[in-house]
Amino acid sequence: MAVVGGGNAALEAVVDLLHYATHVYLLVRSGELKGDAITQQEIKNSPNTTVLMNTKVAEITGDKFVRGLTCINSATGEEKKLDLSGVFIEIGSVPNAELVKELVSVNEMGEIITDARTGMTSKKGIWAAGDVADGLYKQNNIAAGDAVKAILSIYAYLVKKEK
Ligand SMILES: Cc1cc2nc3c(=O)[nH]c(=O)nc-3n(C[C@H](O)[C@H](O)[C@H](O)COP(=O)(O)OP(=O)(O)OC[C@H]3O[C@@H](n4cnc5c(N)ncnc54)[C@H](O)[C@@H]3O)c2cc1C
After folding, report:
1. pLDDT exceeds 90 at position 71
2. Which residue's alpha carbon is nearest to atom 28 within ligand 1?
3. What single string gives the DSSP state of each residue in the chain?
4. How far apart are CA 90 and CA 23, in angstroms?
5. Closest CA relative to residue 30, chosen from 82, 60, 87, 73
6. If pLDDT is split at 50, 70 and 90, which confidence band does 87 have?
7. Phi and psi, residue 65, nearest 5°
8. pLDDT at position 25, please?
9. Whole-number pLDDT of residue 93
10. Which domains are delineated in the chain?
């Protein structure tokens, strides 16, 4: 298996995969790992993990399933081919806020800025919840909880408007 990325999501994916995979490669584009020191150490101590720093993915190969990957060391230019049965990409995500980005305020990462108490955006009458909003953690339960919060706020808003 290979995991691409250098932050906590990538490190945690490696640790999770070690229970199932015979060997896990961690491909890090930069020269440093950014995740928790304790998880970094766990990975470095594992004989079943190879960390490839300064490494960019050039190609993922396969037919019906992933069979391998070609990567390039950006410091030396050396090309390496790895035989694999899976690749996990853990390089972050882009919030899908295109639809409203002219209507509401977004932060530098493109996430919709919300009032943490209500989920309301900078535009009165528009709420946002889940991964597209500016909450720190992106998880199912958090998205669902934020949606409930937004619905309660919408209800209060509509009741007040009716009066
Ligand atoms: C690989 C992976 C593993 C994960 N594992 C976990 C985990 O183990 N536990 C956990 O808690 N979280 C996990 N997450 C995170 C979790 O999936 C998200 O936090 C959660 O799905 C966010 O919910 P959401 O409703 O905000 O967004 P989404 O689930 O992405 O839903 C957004 C919906 O909006 C729709 N949509 C998009 N644009 C439009 C449009 N213009 N008009 C109408 N509809 C539109 C999409 O089709 C989609 O149905 C994982 C995420 C990934 C990518």
Report:
1. yes
2. 131
3. -EEE-SSHHHHHHHHHHTTT-S-EEEE-SSSS--S-HHHHHHHHH-TTEEEE-SEEEEEEEESSSEEEEEEEETTT--EEEEE-S-EEE-S------GGGTTTS-B-TTSPBP--TTT-B-SSTT-B--STTB--S---HHHHHHHHHHHHHHHHHHHHHHH-
4. 18
5. 73
6. very high
7. -125, 160
8. 98
9. 86
10. 2-89 (3.50.50.60), 98-162 (3.50.50.60)
**What pLDDT does 161 receive?**
87
Q: Whose alpha carbon is nearest atom 14 of ligand 1?
A: 139
- And the tokens for 75? 């410091």
* Ligand 1 within 6 A of CB of 92: no
Model pTM score: 0.77
- pLDDT value of position 163: 76
Binding site membership of 135 for ligand 1 (Cβ less than 6 Å): no
- pLDDT at residue number 109: 92
| Cβ(105) – ligand 1 distance below 6 Å | no
